[in-house]
From TrEMBL:
Domain of life: Bacteria
This protein's name: EAL domain-containing protein
Organism: Ensifer oleiphilus
Residue ranges constituting the EAL domain according to the UniProt record: 1-249
Amino acid sequence: EMLRRSLRTALRENQFSIEYQPLVKPPFTIVGFEALVRWRHPLVGIIPPNVFVPMAESDGLMSEIGQWVLEQACRQATTWPSHFTVAVNLSPAQFLHDGFTDRVSQTLDMVGLRADRLELEVTESVLLEKTTNNLDTLNTLNVLGIQISLDDFGTYYSSLSYLKNFPFDTIKIDRYFIKDLENDEKSQVIVRSIIALAHGLGMAVTAEGVETRAQALWLEREGCDRLQGYFLGVPMPPNAIDAYLRQSS
Ligand code: G
Ligand code: G
Ligand code: MN
Ligand code: NA
């Protein structure tokens, strides 16, 4: 409850920051970063997003926090090589907010980022609510040239009907299926099938939670388009990106 109350002042008091995790085309070409929000509470310390995002969501604060993340992340991306993308996670409240698509395009204009350099990540839980509006929103973003990813694919309320009805550019395979890839035949079958499914639908695939060289090699061999995870790079503050890029090139 104390946390909940301090969430109201956190934006105003500048307590949020963003870390960026590399997105890599196998074997080792960096193609962008995913923005991951952090909250540094003055007394409690770092509070992870899976703790405070649901709180902010239920208190009606997540749309504003999400807009702050979007703007910071797009601004940051303008300082990177011009072919790098930036991926931003959307919460249901933010996505369903009136005028969301206008805000996104205004933000791109304001910071001067090309639409195709922005990737918006939605989870299946976002799509559960108010389905016709969702489709309009995704179609509008798609027409603007923004890339849309389906995050955490294979968990929660996964349904193949989303793949049939919504215009995704990329499917992100949840790390649950990646973690035992080396030893678990079932995970291999599932991941291979998701890759085939995505490619058959003209979508790209990102594997999340890649932690070992063996996983990366297996995914590369199976035609996975992009890798993300501690093996490729951990989430880092913006001022660490230059050094990371120098060391990886
Ligand atoms: O960074 P970390 O692994 O702790 O992230 C945990 C969860 O929080 C992930 O599911 C991630 O998608 C989510 N998350 C991180 N940043 C944001 C954000 O800016 N907005 C939303 N809605 N979710 C985020
Ligand atoms: O749900 P989403 O994909 O947005 O979650 C991203 C979260 O996954 C971030 O909080 C990030 O810290 C975490 N993460 C990123 N790479 C790895 C990894 O290789 N292993 C594990 N366990 N978590 C990871
Ligand atoms: Mn994500
Ligand atoms: Na995920």
